[in-house]
């Protein structure tokens, strides 16, 4: 029995040690990343530079903060096109009310969804086809986002200064309920462990990260790649399109937007698990080898450490390598708690009940990694009220 347990411990070490080096190679880039984007005031050369496109489908419960936030953006925004997919819940009425107050708003209905398209990229593609040719930039924004005044000006100035052709932002997450305070940070950590920190210029196109909640791209670049066509079948169209654009030779950035953009993504842990969890694997934007490599990494450095530490505390008298294996996994748990400190500014706890559970989110890490595994081997059949064959 002792030899068997010792053999298992050695095998786990051989699996985990390379993954730890991969993780550290990414996390150590953090101190050298670009600082968070700040809200800025526009300057005359930005006049009418941006067309904003918002895809909607039954968003009446959460679109008002976005409409209000966009109305407070200045003259750099030429137009705000809401592309609605025949909402039945009053979304269109809210948009029409915004149109009455701000002539930059307009409402269009996208064409019937083709069989080989997913709804979100189809709506964004329709919006792109309808933007004014005088706009230099296309800005896609989701209905659940809450931009602060000066977001668009700050985003454009940063993109221009850093010579980005495409740039998207990581937001500040609004948490409300105890369950999501435990689960959501664990799911977010699956992204932070797999990719470079926001603000790091990733060179390899297949490792580029993006967030479609706030997705700024030069109109000329989108024209060259035929809009969202390359991401038409993707349930993570933002990452798929960003990697396609990076592979074409354009400069793509992913920056910290916690000071200019908030988001209330899902209501509670169950919806977070179902809706966000099934796209976080990013398999639609990745090769099979990359997907398997990411699963190995997550299992090694996020899913296993807590389980191993608890097991070794019970079995260590019978295991030959307890000190090495225990030390390694305690080190990984330390990294995890330090990462909590690092991402805390990316959360808004002002409306949170049970916010202390955020600090216990490492308990949910094995569950979060299991969610990524489940999603990686399943193709969604239902998404945002639409059924897919």
Report on the structure:
- The protein is about 45% helix and about 15% strand.
- It is elongated.
- With about 400 residues, the chain is of the alpha/beta class.
- The mean pLDDT is about 95.
- The strands form three sheets. A seven-stranded mixed beta sheet has the order 3-2-1-4-8-6-9, sandwiched between helices. A four-stranded mixed beta sheet has the order 5-10-7-11.
- It has 13 helices and 13 strands.
Layout of strands and helices, then pairs:
Elements: H1 2-27, E1 50-56, H2 64-71, E2 77-84, H3 91-101, E3 105-109, H4 119-129, E4 137-141, E5 145-147, H5 151-161, E6 166-170, E7 172-174, H6 178-194, E8 214-218, H7 219-224, H8 237-247, E9 252-256, E10 261-263, H9 268-276, H10 288-303, H11 305-315, H12 322-343, E11 347-348, H13 365-376, E12 382-383, E13 386-387
Parallel strand pairs: 1-2, 1-4, 2-3, 6-9, 7-10, 7-11
Antiparallel strand pairs: 4-8, 5-10, 6-8, 12-13
Helix pairs in contact: 1-10, 1-12, 6-9, 6-10, 6-13, 10-13, 11-12
């Amino acid at each position: 029995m002792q030899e068997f347990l010792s053999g298992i411990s050695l095998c786990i070490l051989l699996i985990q040690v390379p993954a730890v080096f991969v993780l550290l190679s990414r996390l150590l880039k953090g101190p050298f990343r670009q600082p968070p984007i700040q809200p800025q005031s526009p300057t005359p050369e930005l006049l009418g530079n941006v067309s904003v496109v918002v895809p909607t489908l039954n968003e009446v419960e959460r679109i008002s903060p976005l409409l209000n936030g966009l109305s407070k953006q200045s003259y750099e925004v030429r137009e705000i096109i809401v592309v609605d997919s025949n909402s039945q819940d009053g979304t269109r009425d809210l948009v029409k009310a915004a149109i009455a107050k701000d002539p930059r708003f307009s409402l269009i209905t996208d064409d019937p969804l083709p069989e080989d398209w997913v709804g979100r990229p189809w709506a964004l593609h329709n919006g792109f086809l309808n933007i004014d040719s005088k706009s230099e930039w296309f800005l896609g924004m989701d209905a659940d986002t809450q931009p602060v005044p000066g977001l668009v000006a700050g985003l454009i100035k940063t993109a221009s200064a850093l010579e980005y052709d495409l740039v998207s932002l990581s937001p500040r997450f609004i948490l409300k309920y105890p369950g999501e305070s435990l689960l959501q940070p664990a799911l977010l950590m699956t992204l932070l462990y797999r990719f470079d920190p926001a603000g790091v210029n990733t060179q390899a196109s297949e490792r580029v990260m993006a967030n479609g909640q706030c997705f700024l791209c030069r109109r000329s670049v989108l024209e060259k790649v035929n809009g969202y066509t390359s991401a038409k079948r993707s349930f993570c169209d933002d990452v798929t399109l960003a990697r396609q654009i990076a592979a074409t030779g354009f400069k793509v950035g992913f920056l910290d937007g916690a000071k200019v953009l908030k988001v209330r993504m899902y209501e509670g842990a169950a919806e977070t698990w179902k809706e966000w969890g099934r796209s976080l694997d990013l398999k639609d934007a990745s090769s099979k080898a990359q997907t398997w490599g990411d699963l190995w990494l997550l299992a090694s450095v996020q899913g296993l450490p807590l389980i191993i530490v608890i097991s070794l505390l019970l079995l260590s008298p019978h295991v030959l390598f307890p000190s090495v294996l225990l030390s390694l996994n305690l080190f990984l748990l330390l990294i995890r708690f330090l990462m909590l400190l690092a991402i805390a500014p990316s959360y808004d706890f002002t409306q949170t009940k049970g916010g202390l559970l955020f600090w216990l989110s490492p308990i949910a890490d094995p569950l979060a990694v299991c969610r990524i595994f489940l999603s990686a081997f399943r193709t969604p059949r239902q998404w945002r009220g639409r059924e897919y064959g």
